[in-house]
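FORM 7B: Structural annotation worksheet

SECTION A. Query
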Amino acid sequence: TPATAPTTHGDTAAAPNGKNDKNVIQNFFNICVFKYTIFCNKCDIIEKINNFDECIFYLENFLPYIDNWATCDMLNPKIFKTNYEKLLEKIYQWINSDSVYTVRFAIGMLMRFFLDEKFETKYLDLVSSINSEEYYINMMRAWFFATALAKQYDQTLPYIKNYSLDKWTHNKTIQKANESFRITKDQKEELKKFRL
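SECTION B. Predicted structure
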């Protein structure tokens, strides 16, 4: 059955104690499901827009409302695959945003579209230069570098050897690389030497 917005009657959902705990939890769950369903629908609509500028218009109106990593990471507009230059311009703008999930989205787009045949080391420089205390930004930075190690090991390794990342992101990158099936056993052993 489709999720519906919760309703409250009297004090039923107001007192988180005794027999009312179950109602509070159910109402909270309903709100989460309702909100997630709306976000998924918006993501699906944006991903299917086949005009780059129109897609960007709706995307940039949606990005400020993203408040969780799952919604952020599921966004993958198909039109981006044929507009790398325009996308890269936008990535440079988004990466300087004050919004945690807009920055995370920008790093995710670099990871998704610019670590294969479009790869340049300047993208590693860009992500390593981000200075943030935000968990969800730094987790994406670690994911980006672990993926870069899997796809462009020789070009990415110096950023680990030279400790170009903050300690937390550096160690998390090595952890994620060691969990990856795309990194060889020898590479994993090499990376372990650089843990802080």
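SECTION C. Observations
The two ends are 50 Å apart (CA to CA). Residues 1-17, 31-38 have pLDDT under 50 and may be disordered.

SECTION D. Sign-off
Analyst initials: ____
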